[in-house]
Amino acid sequence: MSLSPEYRSLLMRANRLLGANLVEANLVKIDNLEAANERLLELISTGDYRKGSVLAILAYELQVVREGDVLQHAMDEHGVGLVDLRHYDVPEDLRATIDLGACWATWSVPFDREEDVYFVATAYYMSPAVRTYWEKQLGGPVVWFGTTLEMLADYFEKQEAARAGTPPAPATP
C-alpha cells in the first residue's frame, strides 16, 4: 500500500516536529537527527512508509536514544500515561472507522471513547503535528497515552489483516 500525498505530508510533518522536540529536550543531538532525517527520506522514497519513523531510526538503527527514554520523558514532562494495546479490546465502531493510513503516518491510534472523549495511543506524543491532527480529526477532547512503535505496528498490521480477511502473521518473540 502506497502513501497518499496527504499522508506523506503528515508523516513528514510529524517526524520533523518530533525530531525537533527530541533535540530540544536533549534526548538526541542535532547531528544524529540530521542523519536520521536523511535515512527517513531514503526509506520514504522507496515507498516503505511503515518504516517512516525518525524515532525508529534514532532508536533502533542509529541507537542514539532509547524508545523507553522518550516515553519516560512524555510521562514525566507531559503527564502522559502508558497503554499496552496487545491486551486492549478496542471497540468495534472505532476499529471499523480508523483510517490506518493516518495511523501509520502519525504512529498513533484512537483506541477507546468515553462519550465524546477519545483515548489515543501514540509513540509520537512529542510531535505537535500528531496531536493537532488527531484532535482535529476526532473533533473532541483527547486523552493521550504513550506506547511503543512495535505495539502500534502490530496493532495496525492486525487491523489491516482483519480488513483484508487474512489471518495476521504470527508475532515473533
Sequence-ordered SSE layout with sheet pairings:
Layout: H1 5-24, H2 30-45, H3 54-61, H4 67-78, E1 81-82, H5 92-97, H6 100-106, E2 108-114, E3 117-122, H7 128-138, E4 142-146, H8 149-164
Parallel strand pairs: 1-4, 3-4
Antiparallel strand pairs: 2-3
Helix pairs in contact: 1-2, 1-6, 1-7, 2-3
Structure description:
With 173 residues, this protein is an alpha/beta fold. It has two domains: 5-65; 81-164, 2-Layer Sandwich (GMP Synthetase, Chain A, domain 3), CATH 3.30.300. 55% of the residues lie in helices and 12% in strands. The protein has helices spanning 5-24, 30-45, 54-61, 67-78, 92-97, 100-106, 128-138, 149-164, and strands at residues 81-82, 108-114, 117-122, 142-146. A four-stranded mixed β-sheet has the order 1-4-3-2. The two termini are 26 Å apart. The mean pLDDT is 92.
Structure, briefly:
With 173 residues, the protein is an alpha/beta fold. The chain has helices at 5-24, 30-45, 54-61, 67-78, 92-97, 100-106, 128-138, 149-164, and strands spanning 81-82, 108-114, 117-122, 142-146. It contains eight helices and four strands; from the N terminus they run ααααβααββαβα.
**Shape-level CATH architecture of the largest domain:** 2-Layer Sandwich
Instruction: State the end-to-end CA separation.
Output: 26 Å
The value of Rg in angstroms is 15 Å
CATH class of the largest domain equals Alpha Beta
H and E order: HHHHEHHEEHEH
Helix content: 55-70%
Count of distinct strands? 4
Give the CA-based shape.
globular
Low-pLDDT windows of residues: none
CATH fold-level name of the largest domain: GMP Synthetase, Chain A, domain 3
Can you tell me the number of structural domains? 2
Number of helices: 8
Mean of the pLDDT scores?
92
CATH fourth-tier homologous superfamily of the largest domain: Type II secretion system, protein E, N-terminal domain
Main sheet: strand order? 1-4-3-2
Question: Which structural class do the helices and strands define?
Answer: alpha/beta
